[in-house]
Amino acid sequence: MAIDRRVVRTRTALYDALVTLIRRRHYDAISVQDVLDEANVGRSTFYAHFKSKDELLERSLERLRALLEHTWQAALSEADDAEAIPYAYTRALFEHVAEFRDVQAGLSGTRGERIVTTALRDNLTRFLGSIAGGEPPRTVPRDLAIGFIAETFIAVITWWREKRPDLSPAEAESLFRQLVDKGVGLPGRPSSPACRGVQ
Amino acid sequence: MAIDRRVVRTRTALYDALVTLIRRRHYDAISVQDVLDEANVGRSTFYAHFKSKDELLERSLERLRALLEHTWQAALSEADDAEAIPYAYTRALFEHVAEFRDVQAGLSGTRGERIVTTALRDNLTRFLGSIAGGEPPRTVPRDLAIGFIAETFIAVITWWREKRPDLSPAEAESLFRQLVDKGVGLPGRPSSPACRGVQ
DNA sequence: CACGATACCGAACATGATGTTCGGAATTTA
DNA sequence: TAAATTCCGAACATCATGTTCGGTATCGTG
Protein backbone atom coordinates (compact mmCIF):
# COMPACT_ATOMS: atom_id res chain seq x y z
CA MET A 1 0.00 0.00 0.00
CA ALA A 2 1.34 3.35 -1.07
CA ILE A 3 1.50 6.39 1.18
CA ASP A 4 -1.88 8.00 1.69
CA ARG A 5 -2.22 11.01 -0.57
CA ARG A 6 -3.83 13.01 2.20
CA VAL A 7 -0.70 12.97 4.31
CA VAL A 8 1.58 14.19 1.55
CA ARG A 9 -0.87 16.93 0.72
CA THR A 10 -1.10 17.97 4.33
CA ARG A 11 2.63 17.95 4.87
CA THR A 12 3.57 19.82 1.72
CA ALA A 13 0.87 22.34 2.50
CA LEU A 14 2.48 22.89 5.90
CA TYR A 15 5.97 23.09 4.44
CA ASP A 16 4.87 25.61 1.87
CA ALA A 17 2.99 27.65 4.42
CA LEU A 18 5.97 27.85 6.74
CA VAL A 19 8.33 29.00 4.02
CA THR A 20 5.78 31.52 2.79
CA LEU A 21 5.43 32.95 6.27
CA ILE A 22 9.19 33.06 6.85
CA ARG A 23 9.49 35.11 3.70
CA ARG A 24 6.95 37.51 5.16
CA ARG A 25 7.99 37.85 8.77
CA HIS A 26 10.51 36.70 11.33
CA TYR A 27 10.55 33.03 12.29
CA ASP A 28 10.09 33.77 15.98
CA ALA A 29 7.02 35.84 15.21
CA ILE A 30 5.24 32.93 13.56
CA SER A 31 2.91 30.82 15.66
CA VAL A 32 1.68 27.34 14.91
CA GLN A 33 -1.75 28.83 14.44
CA ASP A 34 -0.40 31.14 11.73
CA VAL A 35 0.95 28.17 9.84
CA LEU A 36 -2.36 26.38 10.25
CA ASP A 37 -4.33 29.29 8.85
CA GLU A 38 -1.95 29.72 5.93
CA ALA A 39 -2.04 26.02 5.12
CA ASN A 40 -5.72 25.48 5.88
CA VAL A 41 -4.95 22.59 8.15
CA GLY A 42 -6.67 21.69 11.40
CA ARG A 43 -4.88 22.08 14.69
CA SER A 44 -5.08 18.46 15.76
CA THR A 45 -3.90 17.40 12.32
CA PHE A 46 -0.72 19.40 12.71
CA TYR A 47 0.17 17.77 15.99
CA ALA A 48 -0.54 14.38 14.48
CA HIS A 49 2.39 15.00 12.12
CA PHE A 50 4.81 17.26 13.95
CA LYS A 51 5.41 17.96 17.56
CA SER A 52 6.47 21.57 17.12
CA LYS A 53 7.19 24.36 14.69
CA ASP A 54 10.89 23.55 14.93
CA GLU A 55 10.30 19.97 13.90
CA LEU A 56 8.22 21.15 10.97
CA LEU A 57 11.15 23.27 9.84
CA GLU A 58 13.62 20.49 10.37
CA ARG A 59 11.61 17.96 8.40
CA SER A 60 10.96 20.47 5.66
CA LEU A 61 14.70 20.65 5.16
CA GLU A 62 14.67 17.36 3.34
CA ARG A 63 13.88 19.59 0.42
CA LEU A 64 17.04 21.57 1.04
CA ARG A 65 18.85 18.30 1.18
CA ALA A 66 17.47 17.38 -2.19
CA LEU A 67 18.64 20.68 -3.65
CA LEU A 68 22.11 20.22 -2.21
CA GLU A 69 22.23 16.67 -3.48
CA HIS A 70 21.25 17.77 -6.97
CA THR A 71 23.82 20.55 -6.96
CA TRP A 72 26.42 18.10 -5.81
CA GLN A 73 25.63 15.66 -8.59
CA ALA A 74 25.86 18.45 -11.13
CA ALA A 75 29.25 19.42 -9.75
CA LEU A 76 30.32 15.80 -9.97
CA SER A 77 29.66 15.55 -13.68
CA GLU A 78 30.83 19.05 -14.50
CA ALA A 79 34.19 19.03 -12.75
CA ASP A 80 37.30 18.05 -14.69
CA ASP A 81 38.98 16.09 -11.94
CA ALA A 82 37.97 14.90 -8.49
CA GLU A 83 39.78 17.71 -6.80
CA ALA A 84 37.77 20.39 -8.50
CA ILE A 85 34.43 18.99 -7.42
CA PRO A 86 34.05 20.88 -4.14
CA TYR A 87 34.76 24.15 -5.90
CA ALA A 88 32.26 23.52 -8.63
CA TYR A 89 29.85 22.70 -5.86
CA THR A 90 30.25 25.87 -3.83
CA ARG A 91 30.20 27.96 -7.00
CA ALA A 92 26.82 26.55 -7.91
CA LEU A 93 25.68 26.98 -4.33
CA PHE A 94 26.35 30.69 -4.37
CA GLU A 95 24.32 30.98 -7.52
CA HIS A 96 21.34 29.42 -5.82
CA VAL A 97 21.67 31.08 -2.48
CA ALA A 98 20.58 34.47 -3.72
CA GLU A 99 17.11 33.13 -4.36
CA PHE A 100 16.63 32.41 -0.70
CA ARG A 101 17.60 35.78 0.65
CA ASP A 102 14.27 36.57 2.22
CA VAL A 103 14.17 33.17 3.88
CA GLN A 104 17.63 33.74 5.31
CA ALA A 105 16.53 37.12 6.60
CA GLY A 106 13.47 35.66 8.27
CA LEU A 107 15.60 33.06 9.99
CA SER A 108 18.50 35.23 11.10
CA GLY A 109 19.14 35.08 14.80
CA THR A 110 16.59 32.36 15.52
CA ARG A 111 16.72 28.71 16.47
CA GLY A 112 15.62 28.08 12.94
CA GLU A 113 18.87 29.46 11.64
CA ARG A 114 20.78 26.97 13.72
CA ILE A 115 18.60 24.15 12.44
CA VAL A 116 19.35 25.08 8.86
CA THR A 117 23.05 25.58 9.51
CA THR A 118 23.28 22.19 11.10
CA ALA A 119 21.56 20.59 8.14
CA LEU A 120 23.98 22.30 5.82
CA ARG A 121 26.94 21.13 7.82
CA ASP A 122 25.66 17.57 7.86
CA ASN A 123 25.30 17.59 4.11
CA LEU A 124 28.74 19.04 3.62
CA THR A 125 30.12 16.34 5.85
CA ARG A 126 28.43 13.69 3.80
CA PHE A 127 29.44 15.09 0.44
CA LEU A 128 33.00 15.98 1.23
CA GLY A 129 33.44 12.71 3.05
CA SER A 130 32.44 10.80 -0.06
CA ILE A 131 35.46 11.98 -2.02
CA ALA A 132 38.03 11.79 0.71
CA GLY A 133 40.27 9.59 -1.32
CA GLY A 134 44.03 9.49 -0.84
CA GLU A 135 44.25 12.77 0.91
CA PRO A 136 47.39 13.79 2.75
CA PRO A 137 46.97 14.05 6.52
CA ARG A 138 46.04 17.53 7.57
CA THR A 139 46.99 19.35 10.72
CA VAL A 140 43.43 20.42 11.35
CA PRO A 141 41.07 17.57 12.28
CA ARG A 142 38.60 16.76 9.58
CA ASP A 143 35.38 17.45 11.48
CA LEU A 144 36.68 20.79 12.67
CA ALA A 145 37.68 21.67 9.13
CA ILE A 146 34.20 20.89 7.88
CA GLY A 147 32.56 22.88 10.66
CA PHE A 148 34.88 25.72 9.82
CA ILE A 149 33.93 25.59 6.17
CA ALA A 150 30.23 25.53 6.94
CA GLU A 151 30.45 28.44 9.36
CA THR A 152 32.54 30.44 6.92
CA PHE A 153 29.93 29.82 4.28
CA ILE A 154 27.25 31.13 6.62
CA ALA A 155 29.36 34.12 7.59
CA VAL A 156 29.92 35.07 3.97
CA ILE A 157 26.33 34.78 2.79
CA THR A 158 25.11 36.63 5.88
CA TRP A 159 27.54 39.45 5.29
CA TRP A 160 26.68 39.39 1.62
CA ARG A 161 22.99 39.80 2.32
CA GLU A 162 23.28 42.35 5.09
CA LYS A 163 26.16 44.51 3.96
CA ARG A 164 26.80 44.11 0.28
CA PRO A 165 23.73 42.73 -1.49
CA ASP A 166 25.01 44.37 -4.66
CA LEU A 167 27.80 41.82 -5.09
CA SER A 168 27.42 39.14 -7.71
CA PRO A 169 27.39 35.47 -6.71
CA ALA A 170 30.79 35.08 -8.36
CA GLU A 171 32.28 37.86 -6.27
CA ALA A 172 30.82 36.51 -3.07
CA GLU A 173 32.06 33.05 -3.88
CA SER A 174 35.50 34.42 -4.56
CA LEU A 175 35.61 35.91 -1.08
CA PHE A 176 34.39 32.66 0.38
CA ARG A 177 37.05 30.65 -1.37
CA GLN A 178 39.69 33.12 -0.35
CA LEU A 179 38.76 32.77 3.29
CA VAL A 180 38.51 29.01 3.24
CA ASP A 181 41.71 28.58 1.26
CA LYS A 182 43.97 31.15 2.74
CA GLY A 183 42.32 32.64 5.78
CA VAL A 184 42.87 36.27 6.44
CA GLY A 185 45.16 36.62 9.42
CA LEU A 186 44.38 38.85 12.34
CA PRO A 187 44.40 42.52 11.51
CA GLY A 188 47.67 44.20 12.38
CA ARG A 189 49.85 41.44 11.11
CA PRO A 190 49.73 39.86 7.68
CA SER A 191 49.36 36.13 7.66
CA SER A 192 52.32 34.38 6.11
CA PRO A 193 53.21 36.59 3.12
CA ALA A 194 53.01 33.86 0.52
CA CYS A 195 49.39 33.42 1.43
CA ARG A 196 48.18 37.01 1.07
CA GLY A 197 45.73 37.53 -1.72
CA VAL A 198 46.90 39.44 -4.75
CA GLN A 199 46.78 43.26 -4.75
CA MET B 1 23.04 61.38 43.57
CA ALA B 2 24.52 57.97 43.02
CA ILE B 3 22.57 54.99 41.71
CA ASP B 4 20.22 53.53 44.26
CA ARG B 5 21.80 50.51 45.87
CA ARG B 6 18.61 48.56 45.61
CA VAL B 7 18.69 48.61 41.84
CA VAL B 8 22.26 47.35 41.58
CA ARG B 9 21.48 44.62 44.08
CA THR B 10 18.39 43.62 42.16
CA ARG B 11 20.13 43.62 38.81
CA THR B 12 23.20 41.71 39.87
CA ALA B 13 20.97 39.22 41.62
CA LEU B 14 19.15 38.70 38.32
CA TYR B 15 22.38 38.46 36.33
CA ASP B 16 23.78 35.89 38.74
CA ALA B 17 20.58 33.91 38.79
CA LEU B 18 20.44 33.71 35.01
CA VAL B 19 24.01 32.51 34.71
CA THR B 20 23.50 30.00 37.49
CA LEU B 21 20.45 28.61 35.73
CA ILE B 22 22.17 28.47 32.35
CA ARG B 23 24.87 26.38 33.95
CA ARG B 24 22.19 24.00 35.15
CA ARG B 25 19.88 23.71 32.21
CA HIS B 26 19.29 24.86 28.67
CA TYR B 27 18.57 28.53 28.04
CA ASP B 28 15.30 27.83 26.27
CA ALA B 29 14.10 25.79 29.21
CA ILE B 30 14.43 28.70 31.62
CA SER B 31 11.39 30.83 32.30
CA VAL B 32 11.34 34.32 33.72
CA GLN B 33 9.69 32.87 36.79
CA ASP B 34 12.64 30.52 37.26
CA VAL B 35 15.01 33.46 37.27
CA LEU B 36 12.75 35.27 39.73
CA ASP B 37 12.72 32.37 42.14
CA GLU B 38 16.46 31.89 41.89
CA ALA B 39 17.13 35.57 42.43
CA ASN B 40 14.39 36.18 45.00
CA VAL B 41 13.03 39.08 43.07
CA GLY B 42 9.39 40.04 42.56
CA ARG B 43 7.76 39.67 39.21
CA SER B 44 6.81 43.30 38.75
CA THR B 45 10.31 44.30 39.76
CA PHE B 46 11.80 42.29 36.97
CA TYR B 47 9.69 43.94 34.32
CA ALA B 48 10.56 47.32 35.79
CA HIS B 49 14.16 46.63 34.80
CA PHE B 50 14.06 44.38 31.76
CA LYS B 51 11.46 43.72 29.17
CA SER B 52 12.41 40.11 28.54
CA LYS B 53 14.76 37.27 29.37
CA ASP B 54 16.74 38.04 26.24
CA GLU B 55 17.28 41.61 27.31
CA LEU B 56 18.43 40.43 30.69
CA LEU B 57 21.02 38.26 28.99
CA GLU B 58 22.08 41.02 26.66
CA ARG B 59 22.54 43.54 29.45
CA SER B 60 24.35 41.01 31.58
CA LEU B 61 26.95 40.79 28.84
CA GLU B 62 28.42 44.08 29.94
CA ARG B 63 30.31 41.82 32.26
CA LEU B 64 31.65 39.83 29.35
CA ARG B 65 32.60 43.09 27.79
CA ALA B 66 34.57 44.00 30.89
CA LEU B 67 36.40 40.68 30.78
CA LEU B 68 37.25 41.12 27.13
CA GLU B 69 38.40 44.65 27.75
CA HIS B 70 40.62 43.53 30.58
CA THR B 71 42.10 40.73 28.51
CA TRP B 72 42.71 43.16 25.71
CA GLN B 73 44.52 45.60 27.95
CA ALA B 74 46.69 42.78 29.27
CA ALA B 75 47.55 41.78 25.72
CA LEU B 76 48.40 45.38 24.93
CA SER B 77 51.01 45.61 27.65
CA GLU B 78 52.33 42.10 27.17
CA ALA B 79 52.87 42.10 23.44
CA ASP B 80 56.27 43.04 22.03
CA ASP B 81 54.99 44.98 19.04
CA ALA B 82 51.63 46.19 17.83
CA GLU B 83 51.27 43.35 15.39
CA ALA B 84 51.49 40.71 18.07
CA ILE B 85 48.66 42.16 20.14
CA PRO B 86 45.77 40.28 18.54
CA TYR B 87 47.54 36.99 19.02
CA ALA B 88 48.33 37.66 22.64
CA TYR B 89 44.66 38.51 22.97
CA THR B 90 43.24 35.35 21.47
CA ARG B 91 45.74 33.26 23.38
CA ALA B 92 44.52 34.70 26.66
CA LEU B 93 40.95 34.31 25.50
CA PHE B 94 41.34 30.58 24.99
CA GLU B 95 42.70 30.31 28.49
CA HIS B 96 39.59 31.91 29.90
CA VAL B 97 37.06 30.25 27.68
CA ALA B 98 37.41 26.87 29.30
CA GLU B 99 35.90 28.25 32.49
CA PHE B 100 32.66 29.00 30.73
CA ARG B 101 32.11 25.62 29.16
CA ASP B 102 28.86 24.87 30.94
CA VAL B 103 27.50 28.28 30.05
CA GLN B 104 28.35 27.69 26.40
CA ALA B 105 26.64 24.35 26.54
CA GLY B 106 23.53 25.85 28.05
CA LEU B 107 23.38 28.44 25.30
CA SER B 108 24.16 26.24 22.32
CA GLY B 109 21.55 26.42 19.63
CA THR B 110 19.48 29.16 21.27
CA ARG B 111 18.82 32.80 20.60
CA GLY B 112 21.07 33.43 23.55
CA GLU B 113 24.01 32.03 21.67
CA ARG B 114 23.46 34.50 18.90
CA ILE B 115 23.25 37.33 21.43
CA VAL B 116 26.61 36.36 22.91
CA THR B 117 28.24 35.82 19.52
CA THR B 118 27.12 39.23 18.39
CA ALA B 119 28.54 40.83 21.52
CA LEU B 120 31.81 39.06 20.92
CA ARG B 121 31.93 40.22 17.33
CA ASP B 122 31.19 43.79 18.33
CA ASN B 123 34.01 43.75 20.82
CA LEU B 124 36.40 42.25 18.32
CA THR B 125 35.45 44.94 15.87
CA ARG B 126 36.15 47.61 18.43
CA PHE B 127 39.45 46.17 19.57
CA LEU B 128 40.88 45.25 16.22
CA GLY B 129 39.70 48.54 14.79
CA SER B 130 41.66 50.43 17.39
CA ILE B 131 44.99 49.18 16.06
CA ALA B 132 44.24 49.33 12.38
CA GLY B 133 47.18 51.58 11.69
CA GLY B 134 48.97 51.62 8.37
CA GLU B 135 47.66 48.32 7.23
CA PRO B 136 48.06 47.24 3.63
CA PRO B 137 44.78 47.02 1.71
CA ARG B 138 43.32 43.58 1.90
CA THR B 139 41.30 41.76 -0.69
CA VAL B 140 38.71 40.74 1.85
CA PRO B 141 36.61 43.62 3.22
CA ARG B 142 37.34 44.44 6.80
CA ASP B 143 33.93 43.81 8.30
CA LEU B 144 33.69 40.47 6.56
CA ALA B 145 37.12 39.56 7.83
CA ILE B 146 36.10 40.36 11.39
CA GLY B 147 32.88 38.43 11.09
CA PHE B 148 34.88 35.54 9.71
CA ILE B 149 37.29 35.66 12.64
CA ALA B 150 34.50 35.78 15.18
CA GLU B 151 32.64 32.87 13.60
CA THR B 152 35.81 30.85 13.35
CA PHE B 153 36.42 31.48 17.01
CA ILE B 154 32.96 30.22 17.83
CA ALA B 155 33.37 27.22 15.56
CA VAL B 156 36.63 26.22 17.24
CA ILE B 157 35.48 26.55 20.83
CA THR B 158 32.25 24.73 20.02
CA TRP B 159 34.13 21.87 18.41
CA TRP B 160 36.60 21.93 21.27
CA ARG B 161 33.86 21.58 23.86
CA GLU B 162 31.77 19.03 22.02
CA LYS B 163 34.33 16.84 20.33
CA ARG B 164 37.71 17.20 21.97
CA PRO B 165 37.36 18.61 25.49
CA ASP B 166 40.64 16.93 26.33
CA LEU B 167 42.65 19.44 24.30
CA SER B 168 44.59 22.13 26.11
CA PRO B 169 43.79 25.79 25.52
CA ALA B 170 47.12 26.13 23.73
CA GLU B 171 46.29 23.33 21.34
CA ALA B 172 42.86 24.72 20.62
CA GLU B 173 44.28 28.18 20.07
CA SER B 174 46.83 26.77 17.69
CA LEU B 175 44.06 25.29 15.57
CA PHE B 176 42.18 28.56 15.67
CA ARG B 177 45.18 30.53 14.51
CA GLN B 178 45.87 28.03 11.78
CA LEU B 179 42.37 28.42 10.41
CA VAL B 180 42.33 32.17 10.62
CA ASP B 181 45.81 32.56 9.16
CA LYS B 182 45.88 29.96 6.46
CA GLY B 183 42.45 28.53 6.08
CA VAL B 184 42.17 24.87 5.28
CA GLY B 185 41.11 24.52 1.68
CA LEU B 186 38.27 22.32 0.58
CA PRO B 187 38.92 18.62 1.04
CA GLY B 188 40.09 16.94 -2.11
CA ARG B 189 42.43 19.67 -3.19
CA PRO B 190 45.16 21.16 -1.09
CA SER B 191 44.98 24.90 -0.71
CA SER B 192 47.98 26.65 -2.24
CA PRO B 193 50.88 24.37 -1.30
CA ALA B 194 52.92 27.05 0.45
CA CYS B 195 50.11 27.44 2.92
CA ARG B 196 49.63 23.87 4.03
CA GLY B 197 50.49 23.27 7.60
CA VAL B 198 53.60 21.29 8.38
CA GLN B 199 53.38 17.50 8.36
C1' DC C 1 -18.44 -0.11 -6.73
C1' DA C 2 -18.48 -0.79 -1.92
C1' DC C 3 -16.42 -1.42 2.26
C1' DG C 4 -13.08 -0.93 5.83
C1' DA C 5 -9.37 1.85 7.27
C1' DT C 6 -7.37 6.02 7.93
C1' DA C 7 -6.85 10.87 8.07
C1' DC C 8 -8.85 15.24 8.77
C1' DC C 9 -11.76 18.68 11.08
C1' DG C 10 -13.01 21.71 14.79
C1' DA C 11 -14.35 22.84 19.03
C1' DA C 12 -13.47 22.50 23.64
C1' DC C 13 -10.31 22.17 27.28
C1' DA C 14 -6.12 22.15 30.35
C1' DT C 15 -1.78 24.16 31.08
C1' DG C 16 1.66 27.35 31.53
C1' DA C 17 4.29 31.54 30.29
C1' DT C 18 4.09 36.45 29.54
C1' DG C 19 3.36 41.02 30.80
C1' DT C 20 0.55 44.62 33.51
C1' DT C 21 -1.55 46.92 37.47
C1' DC C 22 -1.70 48.77 42.03
C1' DG C 23 -1.68 49.62 46.98
C1' DG C 24 1.13 49.03 50.78
C1' DA C 25 5.67 48.02 52.92
C1' DA C 26 10.57 48.65 53.04
C1' DT C 27 14.81 50.97 51.97
C1' DT C 28 17.61 54.58 50.48
C1' DT C 29 19.20 59.16 49.82
C1' DA C 30 19.64 63.74 51.23
C1' DT D 1 13.87 62.43 59.95
C1' DA D 2 11.37 63.29 55.75
C1' DA D 3 10.62 62.63 51.02
C1' DA D 4 11.47 59.85 47.23
C1' DT D 5 12.22 55.74 45.25
C1' DT D 6 12.06 50.93 44.88
C1' DC D 7 10.37 46.52 45.90
C1' DC D 8 6.81 43.17 46.90
C1' DG D 9 3.12 40.11 45.71
C1' DA D 10 -1.17 39.02 44.46
C1' DA D 11 -4.50 39.41 41.10
C1' DC D 12 -5.61 39.72 36.41
C1' DA D 13 -5.75 39.63 31.24
C1' DT D 14 -3.80 37.57 27.27
C1' DC D 15 -1.86 34.33 24.40
C1' DA D 16 0.46 30.14 22.57
C1' DT D 17 0.90 25.32 23.27
C1' DG D 18 -0.58 20.76 23.17
C1' DT D 19 -4.42 17.20 23.92
C1' DT D 20 -8.92 14.96 23.47
C1' DC D 21 -12.78 13.19 20.97
C1' DG D 22 -16.82 12.42 18.10
C1' DG D 23 -18.23 13.18 13.58
C1' DT D 24 -17.09 13.54 8.63
C1' DA D 25 -14.55 13.08 4.41
C1' DT D 26 -11.22 10.77 1.74
C1' DC D 27 -8.36 7.12 0.55
C1' DG D 28 -6.68 2.36 -0.83
C1' DT D 29 -8.20 -2.15 -1.85
C1' DG D 30 -10.82 -6.21 -3.00
Explain this structure.
2 copies of one chain form a homodimer. With 199 residues, chain A is mainly α. Helix content of chain A is 68%, strand content 0%. Chain A is built from 10 helices and no strands. Chain A has helices at residues 5-24, 32-39, 43-49, 53-60, 62-78, 85-97, 101-107, 111-130, 142-163, 169-182. In chain A, helix 5 (62-78) runs parallel beside helix 8 (111-130), helix 6 (85-97) packs across helix 10 (169-182) and helix 8 crosses helix 9. Chain A is globular. The model of chain A is unreliable at 189-199 (pLDDT under 50). The interface between A and B is large, with 63 and 63 residues. The first copy, chain A, binds a DNA duplex (30 and 30 nucleotides) through residues 1-2, 4-7, 10, 31-33, 41-45, 47-48, 51-52.
Q: Could you give a short description of this structure?
A:
2 copies of one chain form a homodimer. With 199 residues, chain A is mainly alpha-helical.
Number of strands of chain A: 0
Low-confidence stretches of chain A: 189-199
What is the CA-based Rg of chain A, rounded? 20 Å
> What is the ordering of alpha helices and beta strands of chain A?
HHHHHHHHHH
- Described by its quaternary structure, the protein is homodimer
The main pleated sheet of chain A reads as: none
Major protein interface: A-B, 63 and 63 residues
Percent helix range of chain A: 55-70%
Percent strand of chain A equals under 5%
The gross shape of chain A turns out to be globular
State the end-to-end distance of chain A: 64 Å
